[in-house]
Write a structure and sequence with these properties.
The complex is a heterodimer of chains A (about 500) and B (about 325).
Chain A lengths: L1 H11 L2 H19 L5 H12 L4 H26 L8 H12 L3 H36 L2 H18 L4 H14 L3 E2 L6 E2 L13 H19 L22 H23 L5 H15 L11 H12 L1 H4 L1 H7 L5 H11 L7 H6 L1 H29 L7 H20 L2 H19 L5 H23 L6 H4 L1 H35 L1
Antiparallel strand pairs in A: 1-2
Helix pairs in contact in A: 1-17, 2-4, 2-17, 3-4, 3-15, 4-5, 4-6, 4-15, 4-17, 5-6, 5-12, 6-10, 6-12, 6-14, 6-17, 7-8, 7-11, 7-20, 7-22, 8-20, 9-18, 9-19, 10-11, 10-12, 11-12, 18-19
Chain B lengths: L2 H25 L5 E5 L6 H17 L3 E5 L6 H9 L6 E6 H10 L9 E9 L2 E6 L7 H10 L5 E4 L4 H13 L4 E4 L3 H10 L5 E4 H9 L3 E6 L26 E7 L4 H16 L1 H9 L4 E5 H19 L3
Parallel strand pairs in B: 1-2, 1-3, 6-7
Antiparallel strand pairs in B: 3-10, 4-10, 4-11, 5-8, 5-9
Helix pairs in contact in B: 1-9, 2-9, 4-11
Classes of the chains: A mainly alpha (about 500), B alpha/beta (about 325).
Chain lengths: ~500, ~325
């Protein structure tokens, strides 16, 4: 046992492995931060390189890209209100307002530290509790997936409080867009209108880049002559860029709740970082005593979203290592890096390759620590983005968006789809529709649909299956509770505004 | 136009295309080649394509770049290979799914006859797996139980994929009725079996290999002509009295219209790589046994599978 651990440290702490982790992290953070370039693609492109490296060295680089990329999306979300990755869209909701208030450093620091704390918890959970977590993940079958999806969908109501109707409409539009393409249960084509590019459904990347990056660029076109947020060099040491005691008092409970929830979500195959970020953001906002602070630059919103998305980065390996089933797209790609070295992930790996598993665990922790160092070194550089005028920034973002979509999908159709979604996003923002629910609906649609239809086949058409399985019943109850609290708060707000109308009139 | 003139112009046209083709082939390949994979990065087809691309590039003297064009049951990538200039610089890593099953399900604008076979690389094996604690020890146990309880037991599989069609074949051969719970992929199916959400799982051997080896799952049968060398203890369905077969292929194809000399060059390079011990050893590590078939035999596999699955899928 001691030998195993010592051997693992010796392997991971070699100059080569550390170098590969650092390369992976830097590449990941940059790719994650650039809207248009996405993390799964970066991991897929780096995969053949790892065939020539040692198993741990290769995986170290991929894990570096994964962790760095999941965090990197928050940088552009905070600084320019364009999430670099879908999972960072929730971070933009409060991160971008903080930047507009001149507190970019505060938001960036919080997203880094919340990410790192969540990652460490996720690493520890993977190392110590992989088997029990996998046991819980196995309990999540189709009925549970449906109920969790429904709960997450109910949180849309929370996200769009004060603007409920438009929020729900955007959510339904997202659900609708997710139904295009191959029917996941029959394999039939639906809503493709004979357009063969649509047979795979709307491209997720085109949608995300369109409604966030392109729409934001269109909005910026209108604001001619706006000065950059900062003039002159931005110093992180200035008080408005630091996290004070009050910030931590607000953020720590959010992190403490979001990280373990995120760890569990990561371990359940099919959910992933974006679901975790939204669910935790919505939950934190719903449980807050001051939900009205959210969307105006609440530091705990940034903390919840970032702890939520980075908490999945180690626990997605739980199903891969214990069941041989990848937890998300990225671990599915990494599967290739395992098997090419003759390491078939699954229950046999722990017995046969214990030295490798030990080194893998040590590598996860070391990657997280290096992530803290590299991320912290990067902060003073990233924050200088606020000095760049939008008239330089956004044309560059447009170029990256178009090339990014094309690199990811090799499809001209998707470029036009992205531009179309950009116009849609612009119209939505201009007419007061929140965009985030659209994305949530699009992500949750397939989960809910497949969960519902699989459950109905399992139960031969009976609805009781959703109430007799305990995990499913709990989430259905939570969904109902969420709807009720939101409805109650909306009513109270409406009554209050009516009362104040009465006073003035 | 008189008959003679038409003949003349046809002859001119044909000879010029032949001449052009020969001229192109002489220099072929003079620039990098694109290898289209019709499934997402990281899947089993993608892994084998990426392992294959490098030695193929060395054999041809030009780099071979893997491009993933996933979606539409593999039809997007297949169409892209068909739409590309027919000069041999775009080649297709084709699989049973995109090549045979998808065009049978729906009119996607091509059939297997739009392509020329270059060589088969893989003929995978489909297994019927159950949980280790299952009461069924043999295929016969299961069939008897299922016969006594029609419509009681469930299986998980991607809709209209090779594993589902193979199990449909077993249902027909054995006279049993199972309930299909559609899955979004091989890995979710494996999870559903382990979790007890489905009772049996027809799956590619690679999908369940680690769980079989670790003793978490047991294979009742494999649907091949012969036993899989990687799993010598798993009997074939045929041995157990049910002549049901399911063997998804992966191989290289190009669009019809690529000049013959180019096809010959490609075929020779594919054969050389597929037979090299180095590539076979690398593939074996990914739990994939290379089963090379030359162009003609590979083309026969296409026709065989097309005729097998057409009655099951047409008009579905």
């Amino acid at each position: 046992m001691i030998d195993l651990v010592l051997g693992a440290f010796a392997e991971v702490l070699s100059a080569q492995t550390l170098g590969l982790i650092a390369i992976g992290l830097v590449v990941g953070i940059v790719i994650g931060a650039i809207p248009g370039l996405n993390v799964p693609l970066a991991v897929a492109i780096a995969l053949p390189i790892t065939f020539k490296l040692s198993p741990i060295g290769g995986l170290a680089m991929l894990v570096g890209i994964y962790k760095g990329g999941t965090y990197g999306g928050s940088i552009s979300a905070v600084l320019i209100n364009v999430p670099g990755t879908p999972a960072a869209a929730a971070t933009a909701l409060d991160g971008a307002p903080l930047t507009r208030q001149g507190k970019a450093g505060k938001a960036l620091r919080m997203s880094l530290y919340a990410s790192i704390i969540a990652e460490i918890l996720s690493d520890i959970a993977l190392i110590l509790f992989a088997v029990p977590i996998a046991f819980v993940a196995l309990k999540v079958g189709p009925p549970e997936t449906f109920s969790i999806g429904l709960f997450a969908l109910a949180l849309i109501g929370v996200l769009s409080e004060g603007n409920m109707l438009k929020g729900l409409m955007a959510g339904v539009l997202g659900l609708f867009l997710s139904t295009f393409g191959v029917d996941p249960l029959t394999g039939d084509f639906r809503l493709t209108f004979g357009v063969y590019e649509l047979s795979g459904g709307w491209s997720f990347i085109a949608l995300v880049i369109g409604v966030f990056a392109v729409a934001e660029a269109l909005i910026q076109v209108e604001r001619r002559g706006v000065k950059p947020i900062s003039t002159g060099k931005v110093r992180l040491s200035e008080p408005q860029h630091r996290l004070d005691r009050e910030d931590w008092r607000r953020a720590l409970p959010a992190i403490a709740r979001s990280a373990p929830i995120g760890v569990l979500i990561g371990a359940i195959p099919g959910l992933g970082a974006a679901v975790s970020a939204y669910l935790n953001y919505g939950l934190t906002r719903n449980l807050s005593k001051h939900p009205e602070r959210f969307g105006q630059g609440a530091i705990e919103g940034v903390a919840a979203a970032e702890a939520g998305n980075n908490a999945v980065t180690a626990s997605t390996f739980v199903p891969l290592l214990t069941l041989g089933v990848p937890g998300d797209v990225i671990t599915a790609i990494m599967l290739g890096a395992f098997i090419v070295h003759g390491l078939v992930p699954g229950p046999a790996l722990f017995e046969k390759e214990s030295a490798f598993v030990a080194a893998f665990f040590v590598m996860m922790i070391v990657t997280t620590l290096l992530h803290l160092v590299i991320g912290r070194i990067g902060l003073p550089l990233f924050v200088q983005t606020t000095r760049v005028s939008n008239k330089l920034l956004f044309p560059a973002i447009m170029v990256l968006s178009v090339t990014g979509v094309f690199v990811a999908t090799n499809s001209f159709f998707d470029i036009f789809a992205m531009l179309g979604f950009g116009v849609l996003g612009y119209v939505m923002v201009k007419s007061g529709f929140p965009v985030a629910p659209l994305l949530i609906g699009f992500i949750l649609g397939p989960l809910i649909e497949v969960g519902l239809r699989q459950s109905m086949i399992m139960s031969r058409g009976g609805l009781d299956i959703f109430f007799t399985r305990p995990i499913s019943a709990v989430f259905l109850a939570l969904a109902a509770l969420t709807v009720l609290t939101v409805a109650w708060r909306e009513r109270r707000a409406a009554r209050r505004s009516r009362a104040s109308d009465g006073d003035s009139g | 136009m008189s008959k003679l003139a038409r003949l003349f112009w046809t002859a001119v046209f044909l000879s010029s295309t032949l001449w052009l083709g020969a001229a192109q082939a002489q220099g072929y390949p003079s620039k990098p080649i694109t290898l289209i994979v019709t499934w997402p990065a990281g899947g089993s087809t993608d892994v084998i394509a990426r392992l294959f691309a490098e030695p193929l590039g060395e054999a041809l003297g030009q780099p071979v770049a893997v491009v993933n064009r996933a979606g539409g049951g593999g039809s997007l990538g297949t169409m892209a290979a068909l739409d590309a200039p027919k000069d041999g610089y775009t080649i297709l890593m084709t699989t049973s799914g995109n090549h045979v099953l998808t065009p049978l399900k729906k009119d996607v604008g091509y059939t297997y006859q739009n392509f020329v076979p270059i060589g088969q690389l893989v003929a995978a094996t489909i297994m019927l797996a159950v949980r280790a604690d299952s009461k069924w020890k043999t295929l016969d146990d299961f069939v008897k139980d299922a016969k006594a309880n029609p419509g009681k037991y469930t299986f998980g599989a991607v809709p209209n994929g090779m594993p589902q069609l193979t199990l449909n074949g077993l249902e027909k051969a054995a006279g049993i009725k199972l309930v299909h719970i559609p899955q979004k992929g091989g890995a979710p199916g494996a999870k559903a079996l382990l979790a007890g959400d489905v009772d049996v799982l027809p799956a590619n051997a690679a999908t369940v290999a680690s769980n079989l080896k670790a003793g978490k799952m047991r294979a009742l049968a494999m649907f091949g002509e012969q036993r899989d060398p990687a799993f010598p203890d798993v009997p074939t369905a045929k041995e157990q009295g049910y002549a049901v077969f399911g063997s998804p292929f992966v191989g290289v194809a190009v669009a019809k219209g690529v000049p013959q000399p180019v096809i010959d060059k490609l075929s020779a390079a594919v054969e050389k790589v597929a037979k090299s011990a180095d590539f076979q050893a690398k593939a074996e590590k990914t739990a994939t046994v290379i089963t090379y078939l030359p162009a003609k035999a590979f083309g026969a596999v296409w026709a065989r599978d097309w005729n097998t699955y057409a009655p099951m899928l047409k008009g579905k």
